[in-house]
Structure formats: structure tokens, C-alpha cells
Amino acid sequence: MSPFLPTRNPSTVPLAPELPELPLRRRATFRTPKPQLHEPALELAEAPAADAVVAPSPTEPLARKPRHRADHVRNRRSIGSSFRRTVALSCASAIVGVSALGAVAASWNDGASADTAASTTSASTTAAAGAADTLASNEVEVTDAPATEGPTVTSDLSVAAAPFTGGTQVTVTGEDLDEVAAVSVGGAPATIVAADEGQVTFAVPAVTETALGTAASVELTDAAGEPVEVVQPTAVVAAGTSVVQPLEGELTGLPEASVPTAPRALTLTYTSNPAIDAQLSYVLAYWSSYNSAQYPVISGYDCANFASQSLIARGWAMDAGWYLDLGTGAMSPSWASSTALRDYLASRPDRATALDDSQRDLVKVGDIAQFDWDGSGDRDHTAIVTRVEHTAAGTKVWVGGHTKDADYWDVDTALATGGGAVSYFSIAS
To answer: Which residues pair with 55 in a beta bridge?
Structure first.
């Protein structure tokens, strides 16, 4: 008890009279106040993400004193400055979020991954990306063709088989084939007849009869001696995937698949030519034992007569410029004279093509060889080509015939001993 207050005797102080208990009534203007939440505190320690939506965190209600009856029922406390800042920043965050959503949509159209879009968008953007992920794609994996440099062959040989006697022209197509410097068949050099960027044509070299039925390897090389790559288009797709190639020029809307290639080899099979076989068989049968039972024999210069007989065995038919009347023995000059036979063959490009000795690599078995011993321009001897060999050192030719009776007479030996020059006619059929 405080020393400054007067003391009294509790027994002498009268007690306050007890008041009757009155019923409780509420005034018509009094209303129980609603609980008020704390104002949200603004955290400025770390800037919100561009796509984050800032929402105030609820707190426990605060106890407030009853409203004075003079206050208006709807009166509320004024909004503080911190709450205004929160609302402003929330609006700014919403604007930034919408901008981010537009950027993500643009990047999605440009091929950005769904994972990247999900990391930079809000919950609504993530839902949109998830919907895009549900689109299935049936892309086909295609192996690109290996890059090649220099000439490349992309086709098969234009013919798969050719007579062993040679002369057949074969064409291949590809890229940069004008850079092809040499062609060989079975190791024997072949003559390049024509070449451009898209194709090269060569003449099959003649070989011996022992090559019949064999598959000779065809090889092309460039100027540096490097082999030309031979490839063939081959579709390579992912396992378990079926691919249907569209027609050329067809618009499918899909990216064009590269056509891969695989290395391979070219081969040519040597076969027999029945017409040449018959001609060669006739020469080898009668080069020393003349066929006098069927044909007349011209003593001392039977060479052109015998060459004409071999062409008949090959299947040629006589005409007004080249003939023999077996009943009377009458014959055209072209049948029995080397010079006249030259003139006749030169006038019939459908039957023969003239070649000089520099074109010896085009000569084949069954062709006609003619010699000018004295260099006068006339033809002094005619023979039939019975063998041709192509080597790295050049082409070797052998002939057979009458007067100089021979089955395989080396042309180089003939020129070395007799002098003069040799020329040829390549027989077309």
C-alpha cells in the first residue's frame, strides 16, 4: 500500500449497495468489428523473377479495440504507403511475366526445346509447352552420303559383257569424270573414246581366248594415278522404320533425305562373238592349207582374196562393189586387190572404220591390217588380226593370212623386217 494514501478501517466503511442485474442490449448502431490482417511487408532484399507473381503472405489477425460509435460503420484504416508499393510491383511483375510469355512463344516457334521454355515461363507457359510436347514426330534418321573429292562413278557399266576380241564401247556416268586419265579392264589398258564431267566412254581391250567367261575388273584412275571411287546410292534409315522415297520433284513438305553411297567395284565379263569366232576359225583353219575346193587361189598375191573369204565366214554379204562369182570365177578388184579393198572399205563407214598405227589400242581381233612396204601410198599386203594384247608398254597385234602364210605374225616384227607402215580397218559387224 502506498504511504501517501490515507488508511481506513475496513470495518467502518460501508459497502456499496448491490445493483439489480439488468439484461444486456446491443445498440442498433454497434457492430462487432471484423478481424484485421497485418499489412503485407515488402521484401526488397531480392528482386522477384520476371515471371513470378508477387502475392502477400497472410498473417495472424490483430486484436483491435472496439470501433467508437461515432465512427462510420464502413470506415477502414487508410492504406499505407508500403501496400501501394506492393501493388505497383505486383502489376510490374505481371507485365514482365506477359512479356516473357511472348518471348518464350517466339523461341518455341524457332525450334527452342520445351525444357528451355519451361525454365523461363510461368505456370501458364509451362502448361502451353506441355501441350506442345504431346505432338508426336515420326522423323526418319538418314545417314548422309560421305563427302567425296575428285571423280566419282555412280552408275553401272552400260554393258555387262563384251566379246574378248575387244572394241566394244562402254560408258559410265558420275561426277567430275573429265578428270579420269586412264581406264583398265582386267589389268589391260582401255582407250578412252570420250569424256566429260558427267560420263566417260572407253573401248574394251581385246584379250586372248583364255579370258572367256571371266569377270574382269574395270578400274578408272585420275591424273595422279589414284583410283576413282565407284559408289552406288543406298538408302540407310533407322531400325524399324519404313521409308518410301517420293518421286522426283514431288512436294512432300518434309526435308529431303540425303542419299548415302557405298563403295563397290565394276566388272565386265568377256564373252565370245559368234561372228568373230567363225571368222577367226576360218583363218586358223586355212592359213596354210588353202580352201581351193571352194575359192580360187591367186598365186603370188592371194592375201586380199583370203581376207575377203574370212569376211564371208564372218557373215558379210557381197554387193556390187565387193563380190566373187563362184560359177565363173569373176571378181571385183576390191575382192582381190589390197589397194582396191582399202578404197572399198573407206567408202563403207557402216562396215569399217579406218585406223592408223597410232590408234593401235582400238584394234581388235577380226579387223583388217594392211601394209605399205615401200611407202608409195598403195597397199602391198592384207592380213586378218588374229590376236591383240594390251600391256603397260603398249598394244601388241598379231595377224594371219596368205602369201606370207601365218596364223600369228607379230606386226612389229613385220615392220622391222619389211619396213614401211601399217594401217587398219576396224570392222563394225
So the answer is: none
What is the average per-residue pLDDT within 8-13? 50
- With b for 16 or more beta-carbon neighbours within 10 A and e for fewer, the 56-89 pattern comes to eeeeeeeeeeeeeeeeeeeeeeeeeeeeeebeee
**DSSP conformation class of 360:** G
Scanning the structure block, which residue is given the C-alpha cell 572407253?
Answer: 202
Give the pLDDT confidence score for residue 70 in this predicted structure.
47
231 membership: H or E segment, kind and range: strand 229-233
- pTM of the predicted model as reported, rounded to 2 decimal places: 0.50
- What is the rounded average pLDDT of the residues 236-264? 52
Backbone φ and ψ of 294, nearest 5°? -110, -35
So what's the pLDDT on residue 95? 52
Q: How does pLDDT run across 389-406, given as a tens digit for each residue? A: 877 788 899 999 999 999
d(CA 77, CA 369): 127
Residues whose CB falls within 8 Å of the CB of residue 28, separated by 6 or more in sequence, listed in order: none
Which among 382, 377, 371, 319 has a CA at the least distance from the CA of 350?
319
Sequence-distant (6+) residues with CB within 8 A of 83 are: 39, 40
- DSSP letters spanning 171-216: EEEEESGGGEEEEEETTEEEEEEEE-SSEEEEEPPP--GGGTT-EE
Residues contacting 207, CB < 8 A, separation 6+: 164, 166, 186, 188, 216, 270, 388, 389, 390
Within the chain, what is the greatest distance between any pair of CA atoms? 192
Q: What angle do the packed helices 274-286 and 303-314 form, to 10 degrees? A: 150
- The torsion defined by the Cα of 146, 148, 151 and 155, in degrees rounded to 10, comes to 0
Angle, helix 81-109 to helix 123-133, in steps of 10 degrees: 20
**Cβ count near 416 (within 10 Å):** 9
Question: Is 155 within 8 Å of 136 (Cβ atoms)?
Answer: no
**Fold of the domain spanning 152-239+257-271:** Immunoglobulin-like (2.60.40)
Helix or strand or coil: residue 306? helix
Report residue 308's pLDDT band, with 50, 70 and 90 as the boundaries: very high
What Rg value do the Cα atoms of the chain yield, rounded?
54
Domain residue limits, the chain = 33-70+78-129, 152-239+257-271, 274-427
- Collapsing DSSP to helix, strand or coil, 45 comes out as coil
Predicted pLDDT of residue 197: 92
337 close to 298: Cβ distance less than 8 angstroms: no
